[in-house]
Write a structure and sequence with these properties.
The complex is a heterotrimer of chains A (about 180), B (about 800) and C (about 260). Chain A is an alpha+beta fold and about 180 residues long. Helices cover about 25% and strands about 30% of the residues of chain A. Chain A has a six-stranded antiparallel sheet with strand order 3-1-2-5-4-6. Chain A is globular. The two termini of chain A are about 30 Å apart. Residues about 1-15 of chain A have low confidence and may be disordered. Chain B has about 800 residues and is of the alpha+beta class. In chain B, α9 (about 155-170) packs parallel to α12 and α10 runs parallel beside α12. In chain C, about 25% of the residues lie in helices and about 25% in strands. In chain C, α3 crosses α5 (about 95-105). With about 260 residues, chain C is α/β, with parallel strands linked by helices. Classes of the chains: A alpha+beta (about 180), B alpha+beta (about 800), C alpha/beta (about 260). Chains in contact: A-B, A-C, B-C. Chains B and C meet through α10, α12, β18 and α19 of B and α1 and β6 of C.
């Protein structure tokens, strides 16, 4: 099973009516609304600083879901709004297959469990779709996203993440500049 | 074409599915066998490989991959405790004697010798079982485990699945116990250690944070109060942390035994089987070398919770006759264990529910996917059992049945995967004699105090540094991450005192809701003993001190120590090194003497060996030999339990036990950078007398608070009692009962002499207390509680040794870990 | 008098059901555990009961946020619950059960549209601790009869920070006396961490519907049903009131009347 690509998937176009090719997962990012404090981001910030990355100014965290199955884009919007997101504290975006080119000071780090490691959240995600009357996905996974503010070399950032925030033995992580 | 045996790969070829291993195994030379074992990660010795080869010669055929994997799993150190069961030539300071079996001659012998009628099941089941409560209807299952190797690589998942495993052990004790308490003990490198690390190693603080999060996330979801445990920091664990998890469960007494019968169906229950966790058992016996990542998992607490709910319901409806958990070795060990108990088994791996479809039959057989158990179910009960499990959304599958043939037969849709004689698996393991050497180091010998008083450091400074030391400081920032009160049974909590932040000695569980009885106040207490610093000097006295520490912690909360059940967890380096094995033997001998001396039998235990890692120099570094003692004892009436915080000013303080100049291995010696001489030596008979006297006084309500003296001695204990109760204390060093003449206030304040407890006695009932404790050796009034919030110590010369505000003492004690973990 | 039948709703990961049922039994209730699967299959009808309780725990692992999947199920399969609430039958949600009731839109207003949400504690950590709580003396809650204004209960959660959709909502809650409990310091003042263990807006610890028969709270009343549950029962200085048990007693007495 491999539904957790480390890089943005490409190829399939979004369609509101026909399900996407079953092999290509939808990716939904769920983050706290901007005015909400982010304790997970603050934790990451203090660990990165302790790891010597003093140039890091702020870290915002988000959850990311990868869902594969007989779903249309509108299904995924409904799921994101009603299931994956807290109506009051969070907001979501469905990630476009094309990675936005950018060279901002912000780095987006994505962390997933390796495909061979079972994700305990999968059962709940599948069940939630079913309970909400949506088509049951074939597979789903949950990951984490960190937006790191500040000028840091990507290699140093990845190394600090591997040491303090994600264990490369069970996680895949990828860092890329982001808007 | 070359046969796969002659060109062995680490993983059997896919084509080997369910098939015979290619020809050649029977003809392999000893070297060829060793090479094959190494590449296949079997961790089998040359002698063991030859025994397996001889067996298959007798069978007249080559083994299948699954068979060799089964042998490797079943004969692994993890499953069979070979070191503890093999003969050892033990040289003690040059005198050699032969130990036939370390296990049989030490921990198990103490239990046998003591013959306690309340021990219902010891060593043979997944957990030890003792009787519980007044009614005679209930029993208590106890188990403590380690998960060191996975935690070194992946501390979050390792700690979580370690807890999951010990919980399943308790669920598989007898016909299943309801877990009512979980514990964890972590040994890590110091949290402020930022030193260079070999590639791939995690900084100690990261490991600690992840392990705490793993235990919290898993245990909190399971709804088992995590109310006991400990932390120990020292450099010896920076590459090889130790992670212990324990669990206690309540079961009806009728459920303490189990017996599967021929014809019973073998049913798998719980999570699905996946590719995760192949080779855990053999992996845990191999020194860490960065391979075998497939063994890493992060666990699925909700699956375990479903399993727990369904299993206990099915137990109460008496729907199965036997249960065991899938731990190391997965089905291969669990089903074989069941077959051993029942006389034979036949199973079909095609019936096992899988996470993904790409598993080879041998992988299904060996996978260590978490949250699975195996049951033996009478065919007439199957329907009802399936219904109970389905109601808890927990999956079950019939894998096969119990047979009479004396063999374990594994198929996959008609194809034979393995067919082995149970007698061979159980009795065919050759046990080679090992060598063990022990030489008593100088520091262990009783000697005149080598440490000069007035060395320049004030007692107040030593105390401040002791309180801030990572092995003494407040654990609040860790404890609060665990739900220690779920199930509404934690009547003595890990955090105590006015502000709910003082360091309790033991927790007391009152499983009223769990047993569903509103009457009765029976509970139990659980505590630990651990001190690797003593072990570095003499593991024998470490073992004695650990048992003593666990017992005096139990006494402090008012538990009836006459019914103490002990668990042992030995974590050592490679037993192939005679000195390491010698130190292990020495510790086991200490366990025997302590158990006998304190009349407290071991009911279960576990060893974890090969705790070594390659250091920066490229040489293997072993952990300090570490013994964790877990002790549980009944609390006859939880309403009489005692906490450690002082309750009011004007009350006399009594110190139980002799103080000697024991500074070897002490915290004070470490702080001052001196060696110290004389390791604390426990005298169980005298200690027991004192403990019993104190308990008799507690029963009459004559003790308001009690705290044990451990690392940092009297000064640390007094400070903790004072700042937790928010009153001052006045101590008079001249009043302390000493062995020999001691002139130095440092010795009197910081000695770690064993078997000592500081007690607060109600002023108006002091005479009654003195009468009740007449039989206690060395029980003296050493001071008073005072309204002024200071810790005041008067020296032997009548002059003040220190006068420190308790708020400052507390602030220093609270800072270390809360800052490190912030 | 017959003991009122009380529905204890369970789902995988709910883990405070046993002690919650025990507490209800102590005060004369007849708790009956059932699962959301039973409800979905029609084997259990909430309207057959005098009271419904959603105990604490980690329903479905809280994998999509605390109580979220359970809330989706309540919306999907437990339509009768709204009716049940309108009939003034008591409904109690504790910790995870509270989170689910809020996310299902049953609290604070029962409009069906979630007007409050939960976020991770400001500390970023799961935390277990005893807290001081001030009850709203004007609360219409049937659960609070005879209770003193200040009580103590334990909390244990990682996502207990209550957040409201808008500041106007807070005014509405105040007007309706829906803010049932607030975290306070030991002298009864609104204070920050650790008195407010999670950073909840306006220190809100519990919400009631305006009618007073539906209560959701983060603290665990089932963990204070005996004096020996209090962290300081070995001392003499605290207020000896088993507030948790009284909350259950009020509900059961109400069912009987």
């Amino acid at each position: 099973m491999s539904v957790a690509p480390a890089t943005l998937s490409s190829g399939a176009s979004h369609s509101a009516v026909s399900p996407r090719a079953a092999a290509v997962p939808y990716r939904v990012e769920v983050g706290l609304k901007r005015d909400m404090p982010d304790p997970e981001g603050a934790r990451a910030l203090s660990l990165l600083r302790a790891a010597g990355l003093s140039a890091v100014k702020e870290v915002r965290s988000a959850k990311i879901y990868s869902v594969r199955g007989p779903l249309t884009l509108s299904h995924v919007h409904q799921a994101a709004k009603e299931l994956l997101c807290d109506a009051v504290t969070e907001e979501y975006k469905i990630l476009s297959p094309q990675a936005p080119p950018s060279a901002a000071r912000r780095t987006r780090v994505e962390v997933w469990l390796r495909p061979e490691v079972s994700d305990p959240a999968e059962d709940s995600i599948l069940l939630a779709f079913e309970c909400a009357g949506l088509p049951k996905p074939a597979a789903a996974r949950q990951g984490a996203v960190y937006y790191v503010e500040g000028r840091v070399a990507q290699a140093a950032l990845e190394k600090a993440f591997a040491r303090w925030l994600a264990n490369p033995l069970i996680c895949r992580l990828s860092a890329a500049p982001s808007a | 074409m070359k046969s796969s045996v002659l060109t062995p790969s680490a993983v059997p070829p896919r084509a080997a599915a369910a098939q015979r291993m290619a020809e050649g195994f029977l003809r392999l030379s000893a070297r060829g066998l060793s090479e094959l074992s190494r590449r296949s990660l079997w961790s089998l010795s040359g002698q063991e490989l030859l025994a397996a080869q001889a067996y298959f010669k007798k069978e007249g055929r080559d083994p299948t991959w699954a068979e060799m994997e089964t042998v490797a799993q079943y004969w692994s150190e993890h499953c069979r405790h070979k070191t503890f069961n093999s003969p050892i030539a033990y040289s003690d300071n040059g005198r050699t004697r032969r130990i036939k079996s370390l296990f049989a001659e030490t921990v198990a012998k103490a239990t046998r010798d003591l013959k306690k009628p309340w021990c219902l099941s010891t060593f043979k089941d997944n957990a030890g079982i003792v009787s519980f409560g007044k009614s005679g209807k209930w029993a208590l299952a106890l188990k403590a485990e380690t998960h060191n190797h996975p935690c070194a690589l992946e501390p979050y998942g390792g700690a979580a699945t370690g807890l999951g495993g010990v919980v399943r052990d308790v669920l598989a004790a007898g016909l299943g116990a309801k877990p009512v308490l979980a514990t964890d003990v972590f040994c890590f490198g110091r949290p402020d250690d930022r030193g260079p690390l070999p590639e791939g190693a995690l900084p100690p603080l990261r490991g600690l944070l992840s392990a705490v999060a793993g235990v919290g996330d898993y245990g909190n979801r399971l709804g088992i109060p995590l109310a006991g445990g400990g932390l120990w920091f020292e450099d010896g664990y920076r590459l090889t942390p130790l992670v212990f998890a324990g669990c206690a469960g309540i079961l009806p007494r009728w459920a303490a035994g189990k017996k599967a019968l021929p014809g019973d169906l073998i049913v798998a229950a719980g999570g699905r089987t996946g590719k995760d966790g192949i080779h855990g058992a053999t992996f845990s016996s191999a020194e860490l070398n960065g391979s075998a990542h497939a063994a890493l998992q992060i666990g699925h607490a909700i699956n375990e919770k479903k399993l727990l709910d369904a299993l206990l319901r099915a137990r109460d409806e008496k729907l199965y006759r036997f249960v065991t958990d899938c731990g190391a070795g997965g089905f291969s060990c669990a089903v074989t264990e069941l077959a051993q108990a029942a006389g034979g088994a036949r199973v079909d791996m095609e019936k096992a529910p899988l996470k993904t479809g790409d598993l080879e039959p041998w992988e299904i057989w060996l996978s260590e996917s978490q949250e699975r158990m195996v049951l033996a179910v009478p065919p007439s009960s199957l329907r009802a059992l399936e219904k109970v499990f389905a109601a808890a959304s927990c999956e079950t599958a019939v894998l096969g049945e119990i047979t009479r043939g004396g063999r374990i037969t594994v198929e996959h849709g008609g194809a034979r995967v393995a067919d082995l004689s149970l007698d061979f698996l159980e009795n065919g393991l050759p046990l080679a004699e090992r060598k063990a050497v022990w030489k008593t180091p100088k520091a262990a010998k009783a000697a005149k105090p080598s440490f000069k008083s007035g060395a320049g450091t004030r007692c107040a400074d030593i105390l401040a540094r002791a309180l801030a030391h990572p092995n003494v400081c407040s654990r609040e920032s860790v404890v609060r991450r665990y739900d220690y009160e779920v199930q509404a049974g934690t009547v003595i909590k890990p955090l105590q005192g006015v502000k709910h932040d003082g360091p309790g000695d033991a927790c007391v569980i009152w499983p009223r809701a769990a047993v569903g009885e509103s009457e009765g106040f029976s509970g139990f207490a659980l505590a630990h003993g651990l001190n690797p610093s003593y072990g570095k000097i003499d593991p024998y006295w470490m073992a004695m001190a650990c048992v003593d520490e666990a017992l005096r912690n139990l006494v402090c909360v008012g538990a009836d120590i006459s019914q103490t059940a002990l668990l042992d967890n030995f974590c050592w380096g490679s037993p192939d090194n005679p000195e390491i094995l010698g130190s292990l033997v020495r510790a086991a001998l200490g366990c025997y003497d302590a158990a006998k001396g304190f009349e407290a039998p071991f009911v279960s235990g576990k060893d974890s060996l090969f705790n070594e890692a390659k250091g920066a120099s490229g040489k293997n570094v072993a952990v300090p030999g570490t013994l964790l003692i877990t002790a549980a004892a009944p609390v006859r009436d939880v309403r009489k339990s005692v906490t450690m915080d002082v309750k009011a000013p004007g009350n006399p303080l009594y110190l139980l036990g002799w103080t000697s100049a024991d500074l070897a291995g002490s915290l004070c010696a470490e702080i001052l950078g001196v060696e110290g001489a004389g390791l604390p030596r426990v005298e169980p008979a005298a200690a027991l007398k004192g403990f019993r006297a104190v308990l008799a006084a507690m029963d009459k309500g004559l003790v308001l608070s009690a705290h044990d003296l451990s690392e940092g001695g009297l000064a640390v204990a007094a400070a903790e009692m004072a700042f937790s109760g928010e009153f001052g204390l006045r101590l008079d060093l001249d009043a302390i009962a000493c062995k020999g003449v001691i002139y130095s206030p440092e010795f009197l304040l910081f000695s770690e002499s064993p078997s000592r407890i500081l007690l607060e006695v109600p002023a108006d009932r002091e005479a009654e207390f003195v009468r009740a404790t007449k039989s206690a050796p060395a029980l003296r009034c050493v001071g008073r509680t005072i309204a002024n919030p200071v810790l005041k110590v008067k020296g032997l010369d009548g002059l003040s040794v220190m006068e420190e505000p308790i708020s400052a003492l507390k602030a220093g004690w609270q800072k270390t870990l809360s800052e490190a973990l912030a | 008098m017959k003991a009122p039948r009380i529905l204890i709703l369970r789902a995988p990961g709910v883990n405070c059901d046993v002690e919650t049922a025990a507490a209800l039994k102590f005060v004369g209730g007849a708790p009956e555990p059932a699962t959301m699967a039973d409800v979905r299959a029609g084997r259990v009808r909430v309207l057959d009961y005098a009271m419904a309780v959603f105990p604490g725990g980690f329903s479905y692992g809280d994998d999509l946020g605390a109580g979220k999947v359970l809330a989706v199920q309540i919306r999907g399969y437990l339509n009768d619950l709204r009716h049940f609430v309108r009939q003034k039958r008591p409904v109690l949600g504790v910790c995870n059960g509270f989170q689910a009731l809020v996310k299902a839109g049953l609290l604070p207003f029962g409009s069906g549209d979630p007007s409050a949400g939960f976020a991770a504690n400001d500390s970023g950590r799961f935390e277990a601790r005893w807290v001081h709580l001030r009850l709203n003396t004007q609360s219409p809650s049937l659960f609070f009869r005879g209770l003193p204004e200040m009580i103590e209960l334990p909390v244990a959660h990682g996502e207990g920070k209550l957040v409201l959709k808008s500041p106007r909502q807070l005014e509405d809650l105040k007007k309706n006396h829906s803010i049932a409990m607030q975290y306070v310091s030991d002298d009864g003042k609104l204070a920050g961490y650790p008195a407010n263990p999670n950073g909840s807006v306006f220190n809100i610890a519990a919400l009631s519907n305006p009618e007073g028969n539906c209560l959701g709270l983060m603290p665990h009343p089932e963990r204070f049903t005996d004096i020996h549950h209090h962290p300081n029962w070995t001392r003499q200085t605290f207020f000896k009131h088993c507030a948790g048990l009284e909350i259950f007693r009020n509900a059961v007495d109400y069912c009987r009347s």
